[in-house]
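User: quick one, fold this
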Amino acid sequence: MLKKNTVGAAIDQAIDNDVLIQACQKVVQIESLTGQEAMVASFVAEQMRAQQFDKVEIDQNGNVIGIVFGDDSGPSVMVNGHIDHVPVGAMQNAFSGELVDASRWGEEGTAIFGRGSCDMKCNVIAAVHAVGALKRAGLRPGGDVIVVADIEEETDSPNGVKSVIQGGLRADFGISVESTKGQIYLGHRGKLEFEVKLSGRTSHASEPSNGVNAIYLSTSFIDQLQHYAEGLNQDNLLGPATVTITGMHSSPDNGTAVVPDLVTMRVDRRYVRGESPDSCKTEIANILRSTNPDGEGTEWTVELINHYPLMYTSEDSPVARAAIVAAEDVDGTKPLISAWRFGVNGTFMNEAGIPTIGLGPGDENWAHTPEEHIGTRDITEAARKIARAVLAITKGGEL
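Assistant:
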């Protein structure tokens, strides 16, 4: 194999920065709301073919899967990113994909502006060009490199990479290219969504004492939930455990003079290492039990309706060590080791026994905001790192 510095030079020479940035601009200009990813999927597939991937397909759910075959001398790696984006909201010129001066955000150089730029279609294109660069540089990976550009991530759908894995496609290690500012992320907190129901008894609103107002039943629970939130655990890598109410609805609410007999709340609970879905559910149930003691199932219920698993891969794992080597080769210093505040689909790779880390361009703080953008230098630097990481992972950890 080529020497380390020669390997890096060969990778960098094989990445055409102008072509990469132009492709990123074009992908931002294609609207791809969740459930409407067909056009962008076709574009990503075209990019894979242009980058000389050995196999490219779009599966029955709309996920794009591209493979560069290895020489069977080392482990395989799955690289993942999603191609849907959240609604535009108040964002102006959301699909311009224009190059702008990044100083408007206190950053250097130029940036691509638009919805889905850092979250995360440019990240996907960077990964595609990074993997393609290996082949053009004559650096065949030790194992197969599988790039999965998946759908419906923004709604926690099971139709993305989770369905790809359940369909039988596997790898030894994984990289999520969600935004990490080119640093190495080892995971994120788990996300639980509970549906809490509090039941009272209807009456005419002119005679409220004849009923039991479910809204009043909810107030003690809400108050105690806020106190509970203040004492939750702090994880030194993943951050704080949190809890908040994200939705609340009372019924009947059709404008008639009726005391409502039902309140339904959605409770978002982010958990950290040392906690579990069961332990979190028990804690919330205990609050309900203390504030509404008349009986579970009659006056209140709590049900887990969504689970986005906690993701964590040790810094000592082969995939993390290889990614650190790759980032350090580009930057000249050891990368920051951190974690996302939000969840990524790499968690489903981890859950399936594929140790996965994060390495991608962009700042996660701009995701879902009216100022979403991604630095062009960030894109090219991340592509250089991803290419090196893929090669290092499949070659036993070294460049």
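User: anything notable?
Assistant: The chain has a mean pLDDT of 95.
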